[in-house]
Structures are given as C-alpha cells and as structure tokens.
Design goal:
By secondary structure, the chain is α/β, with parallel strands linked by helices. The protein has a domain of 185 residues: Rossmann fold (3-Layer(aba) Sandwich), CATH 3.40.50. Helices cover 40% and strands 19% of the residues. The chain has 11 helices and 10 strands. Strands 1-2-4-3-5-6-9-10 form an 8-stranded mixed sheet. A two-stranded antiparallel sheet has the order 7-8. α4 crosses α5 and α8 crosses α9. The mean pLDDT is 91.
Length: 272
C-alpha cells in the first residue's frame, strides 16, 4: 500500500485568539475529522497513514488539539482564560473546542474519528452536540469504561513534582528506554521498528508532554477509576457508529468496546 502525502496540506485557523494547526487532504466526498490521542501525540503522528488513504475519497481534516502538536499554546497575551480553562478541565474544554473548530473551518458537521483520548472527545461531542456529528468512529476509545490498569500508578506518578519533565529528558536521551515503553504498549513486537522508535523520540523531544496532558491525567485518572465515562448515555447515540479495538490491547480493555457495541444500537465492532 502506498501513502501519497503530497496532497496533504498544513493549514491554520484562529479560534478565539488561539492559532490552531491542522492537516487537510481530499477535495470531494463526505467530511471527516480525525482527533488524535494524548501524551505527545498530534495529527501528523496518529494519522500519518490514515489521512492520505481517507483523502482519496473524502474531505479529511486532522486537527492538533489545543495543547498538542503545533497548537500547543495560544499567542503571547491572547486567550489567557481559554488556556486556564484547558488546564483546569481538559476534556470538557476539548469537547467544546471541536464545535468551535468546525465553525472556524466552515464545516456544518462531519464524521468524527477519535483515537484513545480523542475517542472520549468524539463521544462527548456526539452526546452534547449531536447536530455536528454525521457518523462516529471510536478507536481504542477513552470514555467507555470505569477502570483500567492506568488507575493503579498514574495518580501517584503525576503527583510527583517535575516527574514528566525528567521523564521527557531521559526519553530524549535514550532510544532504548522508548523501545522498552513501546513493548509495554504493542502486542506485535515486530511493529516496533527502529524507524518507529526514532519517530517517537523526535516527537517527544519536539513536543514533549504539554501541561494539557498532565492536567488530563490528574483530572481524569484516579485510583478508584476514571472520572469520565459515558456508559449511562451510550444508548442515546443515534448516528452510525463503528468501534475499532485491538483484541489484546494492553492499555484499554477490549471489553469496553464489546460492551459499547451492545449498548449503541446498530453499531459495528471491528476487532484487530
């Protein structure tokens, strides 16, 4: 399979004084918005191969969420309130942002595709602003369960002052440490190539973990379970929905996707 990236365009739009970066591809067909995950993730990493393929038949935009990628911070002196709101409660902030972003790029609605944290954002948009969502695709999505092994140590680790900064520095210096971390996330070890390790290293060194990700972890992940889940509301989803999940996902339990599939009428479930 070839991936033609020549037609992918880097664009910017101002949302309340915050310069938002996004990648756009395709000129015809239905509108698709891709929403990346957390950590050091951004539109160019999460959707590197998906964006060119979808752009062959659809109008596709992959956004860098506020606090991530090239949209890390607002311009100096602009949007201090928005930045404060982002750090106070990231998930509701990003859910509201998607509606504002769609208006800014003049899209009345779109199919939403969300990965991990981005799936939780897409779920929130679908439930709060259903008029904006034509179809929904959830890939290893946050927001579908109450607890996973994230909850064991994450609350303790994120509470250590300067921990994330020190971890970034070590990861930037040590490709072997990055490979060790990827082995905890990948069941298919053959997928952990030297090229992938280098790409992850460059991403961490360039973008790091913006305070928005630390704020998400502190706000959402607790020892007794996740703060946000949409289990009681999944039956309200009316749009065509596809859930994609790894059968051996070590981070987000596949049981979440199976249960959501049962609760969302007419949904489809794809297990990899």
């Amino acid at each position: 399979m070839t991936h033609n990236t020549a037609s992918i365009r880097d664009e910017w739009v101002d949302v309340h004084g915050w310069p938002i970066h996004y990648r756009r591809g395709g000129d015809g067909g239905s509108r698709v918005l891709l929403i990346h995950g957390g950590g050091s993730d951004h539109s160019g990493f999460a959707w590197k191969y998906v964006l060119p393929e979808l752009s062959r038949h659809h109008q596709v935009v992959a956004v860098d969420l506020p606090g991530y990628g090239e949209s890390r911070r607002p311009r100096e002196g602009h949007s201090p309130q928005a930045f404060s709101e982002l750090l106070h409660d990231p998930l509701p902030f990003h859910i509201r942002f998607i509606g504002e972003f769609l208006r800014a790029i003049d899209w009345p609605s779109a199919a939403l595709v969300g990965l991990s944290m981005g799936g939780g954002i897409a779920l929130g948009v679908t439930l709060q602003y259903p008029e904006l969502v034509e179809r929904l695709v959830l890939v290893s999505s946050y927001g579908l369960g109450r607890w996973s092994r994230w909850c064991l140590l994450t609350p303790l680790v994120v509470g250590i002052p300067g921990f994330d900064r020190q971890l970034r520095r070590r990861l930037c210096r040590s490709p072997r440490l990055i490979e060790w971390g990827l082995r905890r996330l990948f069941r298919n070890r053959r997928a952990i190539t030297p090229e992938l390790v280098q790409e992850v290293r460059e991403m961490i060194c360039r973008y790091g973990e913006h305070p928005a990700w630390g704020a998400f972890l502190r706000r959402e992940v607790r020892r007794w379970g996740f703060r946000t889940h949409f289990l009681a509301h999944l039956s309200r989803i009316q749009v065509p929905t596809l859930l994609i999940h790894g059968k051996q996902d070590p981070l987000i339990p596949v049981a979440w996707a199976r249960r959501a599939h049962r609760q969302i009428a007419g949904s489809r479930l794809g297990l990899l």
